[in-house]
Write a structure and sequence with these properties.
Blueprint (H helix, E strand, L loop, with lengths): L14 H14 L5 E2 L11 H12 L12 H15 L8 E4 L2 H12 L5 E6 L4 H8 L3 E6 L10 H7 L4 E7 L11 H12 L5 E5 L15 H4 L7 E6 L12 E4 L2 H12 L7 H12 L5 H19 L15 E2 L20 H12 L1 E2 L1 E2 L9 E4 L4 H16 L3
Parallel strand pairs: 1-10, 3-4, 3-5, 5-6, 6-7
Antiparallel strand pairs: 2-8, 7-8, 9-12, 11-12
Cofactor: pyridoxal 5'-phosphate
GO molecular function: transaminase activity
Catalytic activity: L-aspartate + 2-oxoglutarate = oxaloacetate + L-glutamate
């Protein structure tokens, strides 16, 4: 009998973290690897947020806090949800966790029973299916194709719902594609959900402030107020505020669900870092002036990467509405051979060869549930992106 849990056999380690670690190993060997695999802004955390953390330390805010967040941070979340989305919540409807991932995981652990189904559009963030499996549920993956710009249609959602469906996980703008749903596109999905009152919505809004070309972000409970009582709206400070290492995520939803999530957290991690919580208060309630300039920088980088990748024969890269990722198709490269004799029979083989032969780290599409593709994170300097894309061009041109 194995000492390890049988549940563990249902899941796999995060591919993005594995590739980032592999790139780090090659750098340690002296290789000139450009990493475009990690979903982490290259900007520094804004000074006002740093100063708030220092002030918290000086004031002695270094002890245990309430399990799922200090009152001030919950009040900041309530104010943010009203300010940005017109949604009314109380602090009792807010949960704060150690990163956005924990709030999602807590909700799934608190609600899923064996056999419960969770609809997940693909391409998806790598952790969604495995979190569902760890919680005892069954992921139902529905492919959103390049032809539909990686967006799920209302017809696809309708067809995927069964009596066993408990959650629909929605992410816009998306990791890994950057695809953003317009108000009308989201309304088509919420109209379906209104016909199925047993299905709850988990909306991952982590990239809401990274939107380009006039794209206007909206969230399900905002588009369809009728879903308010069965929607968990999840977010965090990692991406927009360049606070990945601070580990603060939050969610707002029905009080009964928030209470269940609190119970899970009370027996796992307890409270998030006290100092990070005070920094997050400043992030949400302090100046937001840097958000628009940062978004403009990301948009410029997006345009650079999309342009250079679309110059490659066999690669098709749509222009995303938001986030800081592109998700090009390499359907035209499958079956070709690298200059060192590697046959490109999958996007995983492509990404491995690209790392080993061209020293560029990207994440293969199978990790996100849709192939043959790869994900590029353009949260890097213009110089690094230009050099990386040049290497990708040279690598692909040499394919036979």
């Amino acid at each position: 009998m194995s000492f390890l849990s049988a549940t563990l056999s249902r899941v796999k380690p995060s591919p993005t973290m594995a590739i980032t670690a592999k790139a780090g190993e090659l750098r340690a060997q002296g290789r000139d690897v450009i990493g475009l695999s990690a979903g982490e802004p290259d900007f520094d955390t804004p000074q006002n947020i740093k100063h708030a953390a220092i002030a918290a330390i000086t004031a002695g805010h270094t002890r245990y806090t309430p399990v799922d967040g200090i009152p001030k941070l919950k009040e900041a979340v309530v104010a943010k949800m009203k300010r940005d989305h017109g949604l009314d919540y109380t602090t009792a409807q807010v949960s704060v966790g150690s990163g956005g991932k924990q709030t999602l995981y807590n909700a799934l652990m608190a609600t899923l029973n064996p056999g419960d189904e969770v609809i997940i559009p693909a391409p998806y963030w790598v952790s969604y299916p495995d979190m569902v499996l760890l919680a005892g549920g069954e992921p139902v993956v529905v492919e959103a194709t390049l032809e539909n710009r990686y967006k799920l249609t209302a017809e696809q959602l309708e067809a995927a719902i069964t009596p066993k469906t408990k959650w629909f996980i929605f992410n816009s703008p998306s990791n890994p594609t950057g695809a953003g749903y317009s108000h009308d596109e989201l309304k088509a999905l919420t109209d379906v959900l209104m016909r199925h009152p047993h299905v709850w919505v988990m909306s991952d809004d982590m990239y809401e402030h990274l939107a380009y070309d006039g794209f206007e972000f909206c969230t399900p409970a905002q588009v369809e107020p009728g879903l308010y009582d069965r929607t968990l709206t999840c977010n965090g400070v990692s991406k927009a505020y360049a606070m990945t290492g601070w580990r603060i995520g939050y969610a707002a939803g029905p009080e009964v669900l928030i209470g269940a999530m609190r119970k899970i957290q009370s027996q796992s991690t307890s409270n998030p870092c006290s100092v990070s919580q005070w920094a997050a208060v400043e992030a949400l309630m302090g100046t937001q002036d840097y958000l628009a300039p940062n978004a403009r920088i990301f948009r410029r980088r997006r345009d650079l990467v999309v342009s250079m990748l679309n110059q490659i024969d066999g690669v098709e890269c749509p222009t995303p509405e938001g986030a800081f990722y592109v998700y090009p198709s390499i359907a035209g490269l499958i079956g070709k051979t690298t200059s060192k004799g590697t046959v490109i029979d999958s996007d995983e083989t492509f990404a491995t060869a690209l790392l080993e032969e061209a020293e560029v780290a990207v994440v293969f599409g199978a990790a996100f549930g849709l192939s043959p593709n790869f994900r590029v994170s353009y949260a890097a300097s213009d110089e690094a992106l230009r050099e990386a894309c040049t290497r990708i061009q040279v690598f692909c041109k040499a394919l036979k």
